[in-house]
């Protein structure tokens, strides 16, 4: 017996919810609309829907993301659901975003956090106490505004990064300002900016935001962000440059070389720091590059490449070191030969001509 063909449902029909479910959606939508309309008029409704999206969100109504929330909630639910590509699941995702807008204390207070928490909890300032993957456009906007306001938008990423290991070398010298002018979605659309690179950038911005937002700024004082070794080593070098006869190998090793090696460990790892320490003779007689390559089980070319990377680290972390170290090497006849040898080794390794 032949079976009757069942007419296929149209895409619109498939998107429509069952009558009971439709009434439930209508009720939810009206409650959310009323809450938003009666809420504070602080600009949150003028933000596009994408402003409240996190990278981990799913079921997003893509067609709505670029539209202001105020414009969206002026439309009846039926009209929204008739949008191509928007069905019941996408509408539920839309509702989740509207709830996020309602619960935020302000357009600049990340969802789920209170103003008090943001003021007192440094972890919250770094990224709302969540992983960088959860940083929303609202959080990103707050970070960027604070960084620009504090005057750090021209600082290179590498100079203010907690560690250079997650950052690709090609963006070490890129100013923060090249990103503050962009939204997160625009950054993610940039060529070569996958999630790993974006995550590394967010870590830097979160750390800088924490520093500038918790600092007690004064109009007559300037805040600076550098690696921890920079002020101490710079002061020591400047104090001893006029008195080269008082330099000793131990003093240069303890006050200059060792802090630089420790920074290399932070930025390039333990094995590279050990390589540098040996090249400077801090662990005894300086081994040959061949011996170091064999110990590390790499080629000599790789050893030279790692040492070049270390020079790149110091050029972004302490670029003024090139000129600060120069006076120490200017009067070799007045300086202890071993101390002078270490100074030349530092300059040759970290600031090659």
- How many strand segments? 0
Average pLDDT reading:
82
Q: How many individual helices?
A: 19
Q: What number of structural domains do the residues give?
A: 3
How large is the radius of gyration? Answer: 29 Å
Biggest sheet features: none
Cα separation of the termini? 91 Å
Structural class of the helix and strand makeup? Answer: mainly alpha
Q: How does the overall form come out from the CA principal axes?
A: elongated
Amount of helix: 55-70%
H and E order? HHHHHHHHHHHHHHHHHHH
Low-confidence stretches: 1-15, 110-130
Explain how this protein is built:
With 353 residues, this protein is mostly helical. The chain folds into three domains: 93 residues, no CATH class; 100 residues; 122 residues, no CATH class. The longest helix is centred in the N-terminal third of the chain and has 20 residues. It is elongated, with a radius of gyration of 29 Å.
Please name the defining characteristics of this protein.
single chain; 353 residues; mainly alpha; 3 domains; 19 helices; elongated; disordered N terminus
Helix/strand layout:
Elements: H1 11-15, H2 19-38, H3 69-73, H4 77-81, H5 88-103, H6 115-120, H7 122-127, H8 137-149, H9 157-160, H10 177-180, H11 184-188, H12 195-214, H13 229-240, H14 249-268, H15 270-279, H16 289-296, H17 300-317, H18 321-325, H19 337-350
Helix pairs in contact: 2-5, 8-12, 13-14, 14-15, 14-17, 14-19, 16-17
């Amino acid at each position: 017996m032949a079976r009757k063909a069942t007419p296929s449902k149209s895409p619109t029909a498939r998107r429509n919810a069952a009558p009971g479910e439709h009434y439930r959606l209508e009720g939810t939508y009206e409650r959310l609309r009323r809450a938003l309309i009666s809420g504070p008029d602080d600009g949150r409704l003028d933000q596009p829907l994408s402003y409240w999206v996190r990278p981990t969100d799913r079921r997003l109504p893509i067609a709505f993301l670029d539209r202001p929330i105020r414009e969206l909630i002026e439309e009846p639910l039926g009209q929204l659901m008739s949008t191509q590509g928007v069905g019941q699941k996408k509408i539920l995702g839309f509702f989740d975003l509207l709830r996020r807008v309602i619960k935020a204390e302000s357009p600049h207070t990340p969802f789920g956090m209170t103003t008090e928490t943001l003021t007192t909890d440094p972890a919250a300032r770094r990224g709302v106490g969540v992983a960088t993957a959860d940083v929303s456009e609202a959080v990103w906007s707050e970070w960027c505004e604070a960084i620009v306001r504090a005057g750090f938008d021209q600082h290179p990423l590498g100079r203010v990064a907690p560690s250079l290991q997650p950052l690709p070398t090609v963006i070490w010298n890129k100013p923060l300002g090249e990103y503050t002018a962009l939204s997160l979605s625009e950054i993610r659309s940039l060529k070569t900016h996958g999630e790993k690179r974006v995550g590394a950038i967010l870590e830097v911005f979160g750390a800088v935001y924490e520093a500038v937002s918790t600092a007690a700024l004064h109009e007559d004082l300037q805040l600076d962000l550098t690696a921890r070794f920079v002020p101490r080593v710079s002061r020591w070098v400047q104090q001893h440059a006029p008195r080269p006869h008082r330099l000793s190998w131990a003093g240069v090793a303890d006050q200059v070389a060792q802090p630089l090696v420790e920074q290399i460990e932070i930025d390039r790892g333990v094995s590279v720091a050990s390589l540098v320490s040996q090249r400077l003779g801090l662990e005894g007689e300086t081994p040959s590059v061949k011996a170091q390559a064999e110990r590390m089980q790499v080629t000599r070319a790789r050893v030279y490449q790692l040492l070049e990377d270390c020079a790149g680290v110091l050029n972004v972390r302490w670029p003024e070191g090139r000129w600060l170290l120069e006076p120490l090497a200017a009067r070799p006849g007045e300086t202890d030969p071993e101390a002078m040898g270490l100074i030349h080794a530092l300059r040759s390794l970290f600031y090659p001509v």
